[in-house]
Design a protein that fits this description.
- This protein starts with a helix and ends with a helix.
- It is an alpha/beta fold.
- The protein is globular, with a radius of gyration of 21 Å.
- The longest helix has 18 residues, at about 1-20.
- It has a 5-stranded parallel beta sheet. Strands 3-9 form a two-stranded antiparallel sheet. A two-stranded parallel sheet has the order 6-8.
- The chain contains 7 helices and 9 strands.
Length: about 180
């Protein structure tokens, strides 16, 4: 009985140590946390206005990267952008799409656009695709990343779009609808 009691006490204190130390050579959470902190310091100065985004995208050596699903990209995307879905980002796939780690990369996501919920369904604030995309690119060593900053009404933006979605038949989606996503 005493041995069983001692064993249960030992397991209660030792088991959590083993649970947090499950080895996986392909996952490095501590470095991920470091990268997130570093991106947090850089990202604020790399968020650009609609006009800046348009000016930068005019440079033929700039890559406009859309990390949404291929399905959403096919519906509607910024003209000239390249699609590489976030789950498909690997060293090889990124190298195929982005010529070098110093190439200027412009990113945008669902949470940049209102009034097109089929192609750009808004995510909750803490799950914005831009945040993940920026961190992934940074983790792979890309150093020249810029993010479209503002929330734009797709009916009023100066950005040009293309895709299978008929932009004349956009469904109404208001700022109030976006606010309801956070409730």
């Amino acid at each position: 009985m005493a041995l069983r009691f001692a064993a249960s006490i030992l397991l209660a204190y030792v088991a959590p140590c083993f649970a947090s130390d499950i080895p996986n050579l392909l996952i490095d959470y501590k470095t991920f946390q470091t990268n997130v902190r570093e991106v947090g310091e850089i990202r604020g100065s790399r968020r650009v206005t609609e006009s800046e985004f348009m000016r930068m995208s005019g440079d033929p050596s700039t890559v406009i990267l859309d990390a949404r699903s291929a399905e959403k990209f096919a519906l509607l995307h910024i003209r000239g952008s390249t699609n590489l879905s976030l789950p498909d980002m690997t060293e090889d796939e990124l190298a195929r799409v982005i010529p070098s780690k110093t190439t200027r990369v412009l990113i945008y996501c669902n949470n940049n656009f209102l009034n097109e919920p089929k192609a750009f369904p808004s995510k909750v604030l803490t799950a914005s695709l831009n945040v993940y995309t920026y961190n992934v690119l940074y983790s792979y060593g890309y150093t020249n990343i810029y993010e479209l900053g503002p929330l734009l009404d797709i009916r009023d933006t100066k950005l040009a779009f293309e895709g299978t979605r008929n932009t004349a038949a956009l469904q109404a989606f208001t700022l109030q609808d976006a606010t309801n996503l956070t409730d």
